[in-house]
């Protein structure tokens, strides 16, 4: 296989692992050493030209060739069958709608979450149930970390240089979940977003970490607490809209469905009720006001809301469709809201996973 | 073990830098307005022109959170100096 990356001949395992720290090629954790054999196995499995490129990775613009992505995927712990998911996630993140350049450098604490849908999730052992945002599952961890390492090594998004995140986010190491599709009464996320039922896809969305929502009871009771949790004044959405993500656990979704609520019914209710009066938002001060004005001037903030009337109730997103709903987690009492970056970008992008031979 | 390097090599030659203007008076300075604080940027433009005799070329980025379009970068690069990264 014709690979162009510089290679190092190292016989000492410990020395090789330490070299990755010394050269700044890892994120603070040790890596799986990207031997030529392992890298070639990933590229061969994907059946892609190693020099094909997805484009320059912002902010610093290293080319995301299949070869370089495979090296970083091996470092993150990927097996060959994980690699098509990594490629799809990178394709999605590099869509201009996601504004990866901004997501990687903003002072805000968003990180691009990878959501895996389709049969591949179950086949490769992605977790979609208890502890879905946590540890314990190789597929979630390896794919999530592979993407982060690619952004580190090809994009140069490192915290002492271009990554200006004020407090950052544990998902900087890995941030990847699967949607629960079997214990789920509704259409999965990727099908809602235009993919064929039964197909494999990833969706990326830049968001904060999961905020716990104690969510139990009747649909109206669950929606009451969800709506309140979504419109906290501390999140960007409340000031500059954009998109937000709600993760309901399978029991929540079942309770809604049993009482006749579709996912769209839930979305519309949340959009109508996750609102704050303008006076609340104004009380946050002039900086927040300036951001809102900036978004309005740029045409991203709807003019239909009367910003001279303090009783105007501002929604958390511009349109109901900007509230993404995913079913994942254990059958319990908790849901999560994950606010986005606001109107600046990080918007959801979905890409199919291209598996060899399918 | 044959280990592959995960990064691209650094460019061998750094991009040439411009000579710093000796004086602001008469210099053309590109002022890249990133849409984050328009009144501040306008005040800066006024001060540069009235107080220091600068010929200001104001360029506008569509968003403060996305890269400048190539046309903005090319125009800014043609000036004697450029001011970028104005924020809150």
Can you walk through the features of this model?
The complex is a heterodimer of chains A (358) and B (88). With 358 residues, chain A is α+β, with helices and mostly antiparallel strands. Helices cover 35% and strands 16% of the residues of chain A. Chain A has a domain at 13-210 and 342-352. In chain A, the strands form 4 sheets. Chain A has a 4-stranded mixed sheet with strand order 5-4-6-13. In chain A, strands 7-12-8-11 form a 4-stranded mixed sheet. In chain A, strands 2-3 form a two-stranded antiparallel sheet. In chain A, a hairpin with a 4-residue loop joins strand 2 and strand 3. In chain A, helix 3 crosses helix 7 (138-153) and helix 9 (219-230) crosses helix 12 (263-273). Chain A is globular, with a radius of gyration of 21 Å. The relative contact order of chain A is 0.16. A 3-stranded parallel sheet of chain B has the order 3-2-4, sandwiched between helices. In chain B, helix 1 (38-52) links the parallel strand 2 (28-33) and strand 3. The longest helix of chain B has 15 residues, at 38-52. In chain B, 19% of the residues are buried. The mean pLDDT of chain B is 88. Chains A and B meet through strand 1, helix 2, helix 3 and helix 14 of A and strand 1 of B. Strand 1 (7-9) of chain A pairs antiparallel with strand 1 (2-4) of chain B.
């Amino acid at each position: 296989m014709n690979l162009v990356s510089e290679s190092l001949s190292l016989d000492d395992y410990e020395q090789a692992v330490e070299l990755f720290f010394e050269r700044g090629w890892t994120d603070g954790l040790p890596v799986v050493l990207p031997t030529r054999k392992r890298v070639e196995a990933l590229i061969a499995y994907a059946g892609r030209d190693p020099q094909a490129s997805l484009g320059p990775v912002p902010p610093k613009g290293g080319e995301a060739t299949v070869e370089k992505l495979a090296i970083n995927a091996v470092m993150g712990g990927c097996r060959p069958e994980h690699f098509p998911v990594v490629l799809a996630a990178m394709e999605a993140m590099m869509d201009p709608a996601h504004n990866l350049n901004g997501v990687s450098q903003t002072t805000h604490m968003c990180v691009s979450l990878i959501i895996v849908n389709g049969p591949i999730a179950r086949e490769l052992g992605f977790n979609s149930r208890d502890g879905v945002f946590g540890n314990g599952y190789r597929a979630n961890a390896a794919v999530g970390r592979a993407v982060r390492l690619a952004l580190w090594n090809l994009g140069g998004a490192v915290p002492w240089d271009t990554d200006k995140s004020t407090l950052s986010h544990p998902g900087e190491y890995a941030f990847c979940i699967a949607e629960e599709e079997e214990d789920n009464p509704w259409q999965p996320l990727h099908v809602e977003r235009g993919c064929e039922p039964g197909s494999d896809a990833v969706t990326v969305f830049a968001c904060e970490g999961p905020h716990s929502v104690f969510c139990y009871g009747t649909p109206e009771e669950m929606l009451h607490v969800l709506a309140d949790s979504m419109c906290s004044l501390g999140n960007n959405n409340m000031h500059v809209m954009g998109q937000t993500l709600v993760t309901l656990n399978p029991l929540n979704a079942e309770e809604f469905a049993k009482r006749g609520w579709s996912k769209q019914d839930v979305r519309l209710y949340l959009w109508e009720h996750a609102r704050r009066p303008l006076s609340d938002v104004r009380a946050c001060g002039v900086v927040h006001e300036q951001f809102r004005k900036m978004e309005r001037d740029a045409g991203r903030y709807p003019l239909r809301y009367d910003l001279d009337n303090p009783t105007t109730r501002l929604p958390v997103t511009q349109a109901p469709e900007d509230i993404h709903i995913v079913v994942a987690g254990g059958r319990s009492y908790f849901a999560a809201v994950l606010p986005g970056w606001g109107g600046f970008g990080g918007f959801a992008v979905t890409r199919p996973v291209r598996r060899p031979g399918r | 073990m044959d280990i592959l390097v995960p990064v691209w090599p650094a460019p061998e030659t750094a991009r040439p830098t411009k000579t710093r203007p000796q004086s602001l008076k008469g210099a053309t300075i590109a002022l890249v307005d990133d849409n984050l604080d328009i009144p501040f940027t306008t005040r800066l433009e006024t001060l540069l022109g009235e107080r220091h005799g600068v010929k200001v070329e104001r360029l506008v980025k569509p968003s403060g959170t996305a890269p400048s379009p190539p046309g903005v970068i090319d125009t800014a690069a043609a000036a004697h100096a450029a001011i970028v990264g104005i924020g809150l």
